[in-house]
Design goal:
This is Aminotransferase class V domain-containing protein. By secondary structure, the protein is an alpha/beta fold. It is about 40% helix and about 15% strand. The protein is built from 14 helices and 13 strands. The protein is globular, with a radius of gyration of 21 Å.
């Protein structure tokens, strides 16, 4: 397998040519040029309603279907109908909680963590409150900030209806073993697992069949694409959920019954460009352009290897500073984390650290709780937030060194 060609990679992202260093990628990555071209082409040439019999509508319908099929391949879902599109991960999870309400029964329980982005907590907690369900919190170990599977074992019981967990914390960068979690959850009859993959999907291969999850959601704008999101739902789960669409939409019309107002046409079409990009990264000279699971696997292997070098450089530097505390595992091993690194500095507010980096006029990082408020403020007591540096595969070692030079002067 050939290594990642970083020079070729960066050619696909026009924003990178301006010399600015983008290290706030967990908030939203830069967009592939091919994505923007596809959006433009759709709007300029096939901007009509779907489902009609005239040529432009037939072409538009085909393009949107291509985008949905690309999402299916990217996640390795069994069929396109298991891919539900929506405006954001937060909205899709809110929709899922609403669709799930009709399946809930008195006495059931849900489990959420305190390490997740609020998108994967709030909607389910409110759902439980409306239906009178008990909410159990799976909290991170206060010393390691890891989610202990033994703690989950103690929370699971015959009343458990749903477990919601992040695949990767957008603060800690820590990767959770969702396959093992799925095995534990599915030992309980009727229990389901919902995984927030937003912070994981730009860095590692998403394979919902391998993970054995029931629901999996992420945002394409964190994965070099448009501002649109997708929720995988296992077909058997879809059959039990209530409809969110008009009364005359059939109960077995998947995924349309979960897409009120339908999906966004031009953005869905552009998703195909994202998946084609990953396929080419892993193709290693194969010119067939056929999207394969093998190519996607190789692409993310290359990405992991490149990103692990970036992560090691930054974490080694931060670990060398006595005034710095890494929030999460202070280790760069790729099996433990993705290149999202949060830290605090003794006697310097996180906001001030970022303000000083901003003065360089060439590097973008961020501070705050990043919508993981229950972790950052409630458990850690960091009311001034953390400093977060979130790298992706188009970043370079030189860019990391630029940041280190700036931080070295501050710390």
């Amino acid at each position: 397998m050939n290594p990642l060609n970083i020079n070729e990679v960066r050619k696909h992202f026009p924003a990178l040519s301006n010399g600015f260093v983008y290290f706030e990628n967990a908030g939203g990555s830069q967009v592939l040029e091919a994505v923007a071209q596809r959006i433009s082409d759709y709007l300029l040439h096939t901007n009509v309603q779907l489902g009609a019999t005239y040529p432009a509508s037939i072409s538009a319908s085909k393009r949107v279907d291509e985008g949905v099929c690309a999402a299916q391949l990217f996640m390795n879902a069994k069929e396109p109908s298991e891919c539900i599109f929506g405006s954001s991960t937060t909205q899709l999870l809110a929709n899922l909680s609403k669709a799930m309400e009709c399946t809930l029964k008195p006495g059931q329980e849900i489990i959420v963590t305190n390490t997740d982005h609020e998108a994967n907590i709030g909607s389910f907690v409110r759902m439980a409150e409306r239906k009178g369900l008990k909410v159990n919190y799976w909290s991170a170990n206060p010393d390691t900030l890891l989610l202990d599977l033994n703690d989950l074992e103690g929370l699971l019981n015959s009343n458990t209806r749903l477990v919601a967990v992040t695949h990767c914390s957008n603060i800690l960068g820590t990767i959770n073993d969702v396959k093992k979690i799925a095995e534990m959850v599915h030992k309980i009859p009727g229990a389901e697992l919902c995984v927030d993959g937003v912070a994981y999907s730009p860095h590692r291969r998403v394979n919902v069949q391998e993970f054995q999850v029931d629901y999996y959601v992420f945002s394409w704008y964190k994965v070099y694409g448009p501002h649109i999101s997708v929720l995988y739902s296992r077909k058997s789960c879809m059959q039990e959920l209530g409809s969110l669409n008009h009364y005359f939409i059939a109960e077995n019309d998947y995924p349309y019954k979960f897409q009120p107002g339908n999906l966004n046409y031009e953005l869905t079409y552009s998703v195909g460009a994202v998946v084609e990009y990953f396929n080419k990264l892993g193709a290693d000279g194969d010119l067939s352009n056929t999207i394969t699971q093998e190519n996607l696997n190789r692409a993310f292997q290359k990405i992991t290897e490149h990103e692990s070098v970036l992560t090691k450089r930054l974490i080694d530097f931060l670990n060398s500073k006595e005034t710095v505390r890494i929030i999460g595992v202070p280790d760069s091993k790729p099996e433990l984390r993705v290149p999202t690194v949060s830290f605090i500095v003794k006697d310097i507010d996180s906001e001030q650290v970022v303000a000083l980096v901003d003065k360089s006029q060439k590097i973008g990082i961020r501070w705050g709780h990043m919508y993981a408020k229950r972790l950052v403020e409630d458990q850690l007591g960091l009311y001034g937030g953390v400093v977060r540096v979130s790298m992706v595969h188009y970043n370079t070692l030189d860019e990391v060194d630029q940041l280190i030079d700036v931080l070295n002067a501050i710390l």
